[in-house]
Write a structure and sequence with these properties.
Elements: H1 9-34, H2 40-66, H3 69-92, H4 97-115, H5 117-124
Helix pairs in contact: 1-2, 1-4, 2-3, 3-4
């Protein structure tokens, strides 16, 4: 946790993005639970999984804001997975190249914002 250094803008931006995704995921998961459609089991599983992942996102967001190295590592791992997925979509999936490129570009931007020199000082102080 950083007591003497202010949080870099990039870290704040990543915190806000994770927070937004977490809140929207909670809302989506709850909505899915109430409107599962024809496949009740799949809807229930998807809704609960979305809520759990979103809750983890919200906990990780708090850690990012507070300078937690563990939260930074979790976001880094998830973002690397997203980067690989984006590259795969861009190279393999037909009709989704732009989606894959955008996903990969956002993943690289997040990694840069969390692992540049200023962010590293924040997470190691």
């Amino acid at each position: 946790m950083s007591d003497t250094k202010s949080r870099p803008f990039g870290v704040t931006l990543v915190f806000l993005l994770i927070l937004i995704v977490g809140v929207l995921g909670l809302i989506a998961g709850i909505l899915v639970l109430f409107n599962r459609g024809d496949n009740q089991a799949l809807g229930w599983t998807y809704g609960i999984t979305t809520i759990v992942i979103s809750a983890i996102y919200l906990l990780v967001a708090k850690g990012i804001a507070n300078g937690s190295r563990v939260s930074r590592l979790i976001v880094g791992i998830i973002t690397l997975i997203s980067l690989v997925g984006g590259i795969w979509v861009a190279l393999v999936a037909s009709g989704s190249r732009l989606t894959g490129v955008v996903q990969a570009a956002l993943a690289l931007l997040i990694l840069f914002m969390l692992y540049n020199a200023r962010a590293s000082r924040f997470f190691h102080s």
